[in-house]
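Q: Structure tokens for this one, please.
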Amino acid sequence: MRLVAFILGVVGTLALVVAIVQSMLITRNSRNWISRAVSAAITGLAVAPLRLFRTYVARDRWLSGLAPATLLILLTVYGIGFIFTLGLAVWGSTDLGVWESLYQSGSTFTTLGIVEPTNATSAVVSFVGAFLGLVVVAIFIGYLLALYGMYSSRESVMARLSTYAGEPAWGPEFLSRAAVIGRPASDAPRIELVLNWVSELRLNQEMNPILASFRSTSSNRHWVITTLATMDAVALRLALELSDDVPADIQFLTQGTLTLAELNRRPVAAWTVGRHMLEAVRGNVTRDVPTLSDEEWREGWDEMVNAGIRSRVSQSKVRNRVEAMRGLYAPDAYRLAQKHHAIRAPWSGERRLPAPVEWPMRAGNEDLGTPRSR
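A: Here is the predicted structure, written as tokens:
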């Protein structure tokens, strides 16, 4: 019986080491069942009381603790798991009782060293436990540093984009603010910046899925909404024939579409998306399923017109092109916005929980600088 316990303890310890390597060291989305179960459980508990909060700001404040709590609990689960498996190994290799064995494994894993091993085998287990305790803490600290570095990179670009996109971000607002201050439409947004940003967004969140749950420093900013608004701005620029670099804009929309699709666990072919985007820009795709209501489109169109943007093509043709492009990426953005409880900005879809549309300060509105909700 003790031999079986020793073998189970060794195998369990090795399994936990593999799990930590998969979760925090492997550079791809290889989360194991432990991290998935912890993440699902904590997310379920965090989301359950959201209906009790009357405002989005209160919900956002509550959800801001979700990702940190998940990480801390995950570390705790790994620690308890190692103490248990090492305790099995100690119990199986000594004459100690169950509680004495767990006490010794806890002493060695936490590097307290308050219990001496009783034989050579338990001494080896103690050394291994002490080593694993140090390694686990070191890996976790390094993982946190890398994770917060990715978070800072994501948020800094979003803060820069908010100057044009507004808070919350809205596609037509990009072009409207640029027009008001005299910036060319090709800089709203600047492709080099957003292309790199959306590519890193996909890479970082595929490597570390927990990053998607980290909330922004402002309740009016969210990575899903900023991505959607940026893509809408580029789609509008192409549809209005205001782009100075059509291939680069199409490349960005293709990358953005791939990012949203893959974060939704929906694989798509890059060339297929790029070809559909090109056809939409040329006006060769009809609008089958609108992603915007007539009212939503009119609000965006009026915002741009009031800001001084003049179209070289008819409004109906512009909308047809925009809807064809949005049909490739907006559904995935809407699903991600619902999943992560993003702020309900204009043109960002419905939410499961009732929420009004929150508007940025509008450059093309008569009451300049006045946000509104509905």
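A few notes: The chain has 13 helices and no strands. The longest helix spans residues 120-165.
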